[in-house]
Design brief:
- With 174 residues, the chain is of the alpha+beta class.
- The protein has two domains: 5-132, 2-Layer Sandwich (Alpha-Beta Plaits); 133-174.
- The protein has helices at residues 5-21, 35-47, 57-65, 93-104, 123-130, 135-173; strands at 24-29, 51-54, 82-87, 109-115, 120-121.
- A hairpin with a 4-residue loop joins strand 4 (109-115) and strand 5 (120-121).
- The longest helix is centred in the C-terminal third of the chain and has 39 residues, at 135-173.
Length: 174
């Protein structure tokens, strides 16, 4: 059943808002994946702050062309049954969510992506991004590295203090 022009305009406006605010938009072919599995993907994506939309490629192209920053993005890879994953908080999260889902459902194949800065990414680049640790994990690693000298110094000083106290205690008992 065809959708009305008003509904199409509403969808284009929603996609414009999603893509305009997105730090990264990843699109993947989902042919052969059940509706229940797509719903599962959407639930996992929501937990990671990622929005998954299944929408006609032509409507997405119309939405992209109406955004000044993105109107020069190459949309030639938008072919077939695609779903679009966006995140307005994390550049890597859409690729990671889709990559994790693709491990269980190999029918999901990356088709392409573009960043908020209007640069196109190849499938290989998307997979490299997907293999990066999450933002929270990277922040935790940096904090651990920054605190490492403090912990080392504290451990060294406490070790010397214990040795000094053990020596004083040994002298006091003799």
């Amino acid at each position: 059943m065809a959708i009305s022009r008003d509904k199409k305009n509403q969808l284009v406006a929603e996609v414009q808002e999603l893509v305009k605010n997105a730090k990264m938009t990843v699109f993947a072919e989902y042919k052969g994946i059940s509706v229940a599995d797509i719903q599962d993907l959407r639930a996992k994506a929501r937990e990671a702050g990622v929005t998954i939309r299944v929408i006609k490629n032509r409507l997405v192209r119309v939405a992209i062309e109406s955004i000044d920053e993105l109107k020069n993005v190459d949309t030639s890879a938008m072919i077939g049954q695609l779903l679009y994953a966006t995140s307005d908080t994390d550049e890597v999260a859409p690729a990671q969510v889709l990559n994790n889902f693709a491990k269980e459902h190999p029918q999901l194949q990356f088709a392409g992506a573009f960043s908020g800065e209007a640069s196109n990414l190849s499938v290989a680049e998307i997979k490299e991004l997907a293999d990066l640790p999450s933002r929270e994990q990277l922040v935790a690693e940096v904090v651990a590295q920054l605190l490492s000298p403090v912990h080392d110094t504290t451990n060294a000083l406490s070790g010397n203090l214990h040795a000094l106290l053990d020596g004083v205690e040994a002298k006091a008992t003799t």
